[in-house]
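Retro notes
What went well: the complex prediction finally ran end to end.
Inputs used:
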Amino acid sequence: MAAALLKVSNIETYYGPITAIRGVSLEVGENQIVAVLGANGAGKTTILRTISGIMDPQKGSVTFDGQAIQKREPADIVARGISHVPEGREIFPLLTVKENLMMGCYLRRDRATVARDLELVYEYFPVIGQRASQQAGQLSGGEQQMLAISRALMQKPRLLLLDEPSLGLSPRLVKDIFDIVRRLNEERRMTILIVEQNANMALQVAHYGYVLEVGRIVMEDVSASLRGNKDVREFYLGIQEEGVRGTRRWKRKKVWR
Amino acid sequence: MNRTSPAETDGHDPGPGLVIRTDSDIGGTLCSLFWTRVQQWSSEIIIRDKHLGVWRALTWHDLGQRVMEVALALDACDFKAGDIACILSNTNKEWLFVDLGILCSGGVSTGIYPTDAPAQVEYLINNCQASVIFVEDEEQLDKVLLARSNCPSIRKIVIFDTEGLQAFSDPMAVSLADFSDQGRQLAQSDSSRWDEMLQRPTPDDLAILIYTSGTTGPPKGAMISHHNVVFQCVNGCSLLDQKQGDERLAFLPLCHVAERVIGAYYSLYTGTVINFCEGPDTVVENVREVQPTVFGGVPRVWEKFYSGIQIAIAEGTAFQKWACATALNVAFRVVDLNLAHKPVPWILRAQYQLASMLVLRNIRKSVGLDRCRWMLTGAAPVSPQLVRWYLALGLQLLEIYGQTENVGMATVTYPGDVKLGTVGRPVPYGELKISHDGEILLRGDHVFMGYYNMPEKTAEAINDGWLHTGDVGRIDEQGYVSITDRMKDIIITAGGKNVTPSEIENELKFSPYVSDAVIIGDGRKYLTSLVMIDHDNVAKFAQDQDVPFTNFASLCHASEVVELIRGEIDRVNETFARVEQIKDFRLIDVLLTPEDDELTPTMKLKRSFVSKKYKDVVEEMYN
């Protein structure tokens, strides 16, 4: 079993008086893709923000490569090798595509390798290369998502945090994005933590999964078992038995076994 | 209020000295009781429930109308006197309309737990050969549809809430709204039929069937007559001050004798307003909104309130914690003196008044129990420490004892007459004695008629004129009854020692971290336990202690949690004898719900079932 590159322990993060996550612990092993599934408001984005330092947890610890990183400055955390692709892309609309990418490797000084990484990114995402001198705000949703991921890759992260990469994208584009996520993990051995509402796509690409409900983990398992679990199928994959009347509207009680 | 002299101990008949009341105004059947009240109190409020967040009230007149519509509609669809109808729904006002409607049409009403699986529903329908079944909604309807092909007796299905069923149609099925419409039209066209129907039932007719939870063997239908219920209402209500204008909260399952008789029927007899809870999850909020004046609950309810308050205190400021601790300290001293019938020094009494006014009253108000004149606990054993705590808080928590088979109360604790560890005194309208092997026997008009179509089981239960309760108990010199345990549950260790598991389990359950526990040890060298933890409280503990966990199973496997429970078990072991020590335990690492076979609908672990299902885990503890 691979050693945990990232270990989150008992974190409690608040938005003012509201407890967004109340005691979450999870692990991401080196070279693994781990998915955190949850509905809106479950606390998924809050977990990623806590890891990347945008938010400080009230309690608990985040350990990366053996070092405690909770409550550190986000810039410090980026320098240690964690890149966060935020929810909703958040690319810089008035900068060009190339400028966005250069912002991504802001902390790096090694020009030669930067140039090589740029080529790599253009190889993964040809359309980014084609639009290199266009204003980023003019790109379509799917292209912006690819730009956001590329920008994160430019920092040569050891751990990539992806917040809802499928948000607002067409099914075909979602498939393309997830194919790239898989390639990044297989070819570049990148460790990835994906937070997703689209449980179906996430479970196809992840090795391990956690299910988050209202700030608490209710289930964790290898993704094959999660795909077969009754509660995950009904509540996250939309697969419901027909029932005796041919249509079933009422929901089973969740048991998380 | 008249009381008999305390019952005598072992073997002797208490004999004469019973105090039996009758009420000639209300007739001899539940139907006549109901209709008398409808006419007597027609514009008074009797029911409240919440609709879209707003409480609405129904008067006796409204209730009478709804019941009449159901009864007439049943009559019109060939439902004859003596026919049986089932109700498969959570506790709501329609449950009551339909229950009374069935009774007024001369039929027999029987409830099914809404958490039962389709197979269980099928068993119950076939056991009583019910011809009509009332279901709450599409979820319950699906259970009946699955069972229907094996239930030839069913000819009509009436659905309370048709949401989601627009596309559904079935020759047997009809909505309650349409069903009641038929009844309304019949009321207008034939106004004498209703009065005819009301005259039909006689006191000795079978009125309701209550199926016992069947922890050992399949459920048995206890046959309860009109007289049984009226007798309990008239006599039971005289022991507990309850009158028109009182408010109570209905949330326990109506298919259970406690909520049906001591809850609903007592309320109908006395005019207590029945406030229906929105759902099993909103009890805490609804108690605060309703602020009931009388309250009946099972120990689990009292444990939940207790742990909620303890946690709220623990999360308070240092000053609040100090204030509560000090107030409770004073209160406990007063309570202990009261329980020992010793005088309370005036200084202490003054301190208690202050504590009550400044602290305890606020706690009571914040939970919603400040207006309660008395609160009952029954249907399961409760920890005496818990009762003492409520007394300290200034609330009369009175323990009662009874079974489905005696239609409610067999003993009652009178307000001001609490003796911890006892269930009070035998009710003055029934006889109670202890058999030579310690079993509690009952006799009187409150004893049921027998089990439906089970003459052998009936003969086992009612023997020699006495109801054999299956509970072992004692009566002390002052006349207080205490329950030792269910006869079948008493453990005899390999060393031949008798152990009563309930007592030990109660003490374990007093801990906020333990939801329920089962002691194992029959024929074994020592005792062990299977423990079901309280998810919320233990998760909070783990979080406070920085113990990482993900799902429920991982919480149970965390070593700190195991140590926490070990600590609770050690604490309990200190108060018990050497032979009663729990030597080992395991946590049930699956979050159980009432739909699981291991739990009863009232969230109690089924001892024998759990022992069998976790046999491997148990064996591991003995090797």
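What we learned: The mean pLDDT of chain A is 90.
What to try next: split runs per interface for comparison.
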